[in-house]
Every structure is written in C-alpha cells, then in structure tokens.
Amino acid sequence: MSKRWLIITIAIFTALTVLSYSLLLNPTFQEKLGWHLMQWTGRVRVLLNPPQEVAFSSDQISSEGTLIIPSPQIASMTPEPTRPLQTATPTATLAPIPLAYTIDIDTYFSQHNRWNYCGPANLAMVLSYWGWEGTHDDVAQGVRTYNKDKNIMPYELQDYSEEEAGLEMLIRVGGDLETLKHIIAAGFPVIVEKGPTFRDINYNITWMGHYQVLNGYNDAEGYFIAQDSYIEPDYIQPYDTLLSEWRSFNYLYMVVYPSNKKNDVLNLLGSNRDINQNYQNALNKAQEEIYQTDGVDQFFAMFNYGTNLVQLRDYSGAAQAYDQAFAMYDALPNDSTIPYRILWYETGPFLAYYYTGRYSDVIEKATKNSIEMVRDDEPALEESYYWRGMAEIAMGRKDDGIDDLYTCLEYHQDFQPCLDALHSLGIYP
Fold first, then answer.
1. DSSP characters over 168-217
2. What's the mean pLDDT in 67-71?
C-alpha cells in the first residue's frame, strides 16, 4: 500500500471512530439505539426463557382444597408510616350528573420511544390541565431515578404532584364507574391504573400495568373518553373493558386537584373519603368478586383481597390470601397474557410475608417472580431489592442484605426505606 493510500485509510478510520463515539455519546441516539437493541435481545431471551412459565407457588402453598377466604383480623405488628387521613364533612347525596360530560384537555403526551413513560406522560397531562407548565420529561426526571426503571408507583406520582407541582393528589381503591363519572362531571380528570394486554416492545401480546387519564364519559354509548399515552388522544374506552382491566389493580384511581378544592373532591367519595373505610369497602368488593369470577379474574380478586388486608394491617390474613392467589395463578393456562409481571407493580405480598416471618418466601418471590423476570439485564425494581434485602438481614444473611440495599439505591437514589434500613445498621452511604 502506498503512503498516500495509507494516509487516506487512517483518515477514514479516524473519522469513522470520531463519528461513532459522537453518536454513542449523544443521548437521543443512545435512547433510540438502546431501544432497538433491547427489542432484539429481549425477544431472544424471552424465546429461550419464557418468563410466564415460572410458577409462583412455594412449598407452603397448595393449589388443592376448598377455597378459604381469611376472616380479617387487625394485626399487632407496627404499621408502616401512612399519610394523614383525609376527611371532610359528609355529603348526604350526590347531585345528579348529565348522561355525558367531557373535560377539555388541550395537552397530550405520548409515551412512545421512551422507557416506561406511561406514568410521567399521564401525570403531565393532568398537571397541565391545572396550569402546570412542564412536559412528561420533566415528570420523568422526578419520578424515574433510573433510565430503565420498570415501574412508577402511585405514591411516586403523588409525591411529584405535591412536592414539585404544588398540587394535591388523592389515591383510592375499590373504585366503580359511578364514582369516576361523578368526579369527571365535577371537573376533575381521573387517572386509573389498570392491566391491559398490549403488544410489548418485544412484539408479544402480554399483560402489563398501565396508567390512563379519563376526562369524559358517555352513558348512552357506554364509554369513557381517555387520553391514552400508549394508544392515542381522545381514545374511546368502553366501560366493560375498563372494568375488566381495572380489576387487576384493585380498581385504583387518582385525582389531582388544587388544595382549595380538597373538600370538593372528598365530598364526591361518600364513605371512601376515609382511607381506612376505603380499604374496608375495597376488601368487601374483592370478597364478592372471588365468588363471582373464575380464571385470571378470580386470581386478581383474591390478590386484591390480600392487598386490602395488607393496608388494614392484617398481615396474617393477607399472607393466606396471597397463598391462594398464587395457587390460582399456577393453575392458569400458560401463555404470555397471564400477569407474570405483577410483583413489579404490586408489592403487597412482600409486606405480608415479611411481617409474618416468612422471609424465605419474600426472597423467593422477589428473586424468582420479580428480579429474574427482567429480560434486559436491568432489573430496576428498587422495591424488590429492598424487601429481599430486608428478608436476608432478618435471616442472618447481613452481607447479602446490605448488597441488595445498595443495589436498590443504584436504581433509586435516596430511596428512603433503603436509607433507613442501612442507617439502622450503622451504615451511612
């Protein structure tokens, strides 16, 4: 090779190297490249190791025998800190509402081409309705402490609303269609958490958690109007479909409002304005649905029963309910639509098993049915690491527990439960 061609070759190689590094250091390019790389690697891993084939039951759980619903008992364990109860002067009856009503929401945010953005996108739409000036990226910077965070909890959205946007948020469970319609007719958009079956980034039809803004309804046609960050703005959400998908998250709903409208919101809730009564009402609803449903719906009903018992501090009864729910899960047909990701979104079983001394079950569920379910080598599930770490420490495996607490902090910097746990061990990271 002549000296001239050698110089040209080196120049081309140098230019390509500089261009490659420039692209790789560009956040937008990284996001898009990473998205497509994860799609392909995820498909291969799911094909080789289907996550839905992993069972939930442990040695303590049997799928045989008669269905037993635990009688609620208030546990004697020290409860976790809770927010102050929200109460208001009762309203005897709610005013009649129109057969159809729509709240105009001018700002729509899509979650596409971003990692796990339905929480930030939906919250940003509702905050914008109340005059907040920002985007879904602003919300994401506050609630997604890691780029590939697998789930944004309702309390994280609540914290952002109150601490960053200056607006209050009410969270309730056990909702129904009439409650949603009354809230909307009073001028408050509602965010619901539900479990639809969507085509995921690996192009598999699968169950997953999803937030959705409801800003209108039409009784004559039987639908809500939704600003769905995954599908489209002004999406027609049929009542019956919402109910089916909403059950998987205990019929949870969230309302954002200025502080001067607090009583207006609470007076729309009837007995559900009191948080403890709300969980009792939701418990009763779940109990009824256990006997009214079968298959995956019965699994969700029993799971909800356990979740409401956790909130009422009956950890023993909750553990029994979760045992039966997981046995129901293992009896479901094995396909990609079963809710194998449920412990990414709902952590009630960790509390129930931990506070009843079943530490091995906490470790098993956090490992096998949560962390190891991830197929992109980024198990950004701080709650799973926290509870596994706490269980390991309780079993005398202090070093393993500390490692998990530090991993928790890698995925969620300043996650207060992890910091508190480390501080109790005399460690101040």
1. EEEEE-S--HHHHHHHHHTT--EEEEE--EEE-TTS-EEE--EEEEEEEE
2. 77
Q: CA-to-CA distance for 383 and 97, rounded, in angstroms? A: 41
Closest CA to 349 of 396, 301, 378, 317: 317
Phi, psi at 192, each rounded to 5°: -110, 150
pLDDT in tens, 277-328: 999 999 999 999 999 999 999 999 999 999 999 999 999 999 999 999 999 9
* Helix, strand, coil share (%) of the chain residues, nearest 5: 50, 10, 40
Which class for 22: exposed (0-12), middle (13-18), buried (19 or more C-beta within 10 A)? Answer: exposed
- Six-digit token string for 369: 């049915």
User: Residue type at 240?
Assistant: D
What average pLDDT does this structure show over 207-231? 97
**Contacts of residue 367, Cβ cutoff 8 Å, sequence gap at least 6:** 388
Distance (Å, whole) CA 368 – CA 202: 21
Query: pLDDT digit string (tens) for 339-388?
Result: 999 999 999 999 999 999 999 999 999 999 999 988 777 899 999 999 99
What the block records as the tokens of 371 is: 């962390």
Under 8 Å between Cβ of 157 and 149: no
Q: What is the pLDDT of residue 76?
A: 36
Two tokens, residue 185: 């007719």
pLDDT band of 335, cuts 50, 70, 90: confident
**Residue 71 Cα distances to 74, 173, 244, 314, 352, angstroms:** 10, 20, 26, 9, 15
pTM of the predicted structure, to 2 decimals: 0.84
Nearest Cα neighbor of 69 from 322, 363, 240, 276 is: 322
Q: Which long-range contacts (CB under 8 A, 24 or more apart) does 193-199 make?
A: 193/154, 193/246, 193/249, 193/252, 193/253, 193/254, 194/242, 194/245, 194/246, 194/248, 194/249, 195/245, 195/247, 195/248, 195/249, 195/300, 195/339, 196/245, 197/337, 198/230
The angle, 0 to 180 degrees and rounded to 10, between the axes of the packed helices 177-185 and 239-246 is 110
Domain 100-273: give its CATH architecture: Alpha-Beta Complex (3.90)
What is the rounded distance in angstroms from the CA atom of residue 104 to the CA atom of residue 337?
Answer: 34
Residue 100, both tokens: 């159809």
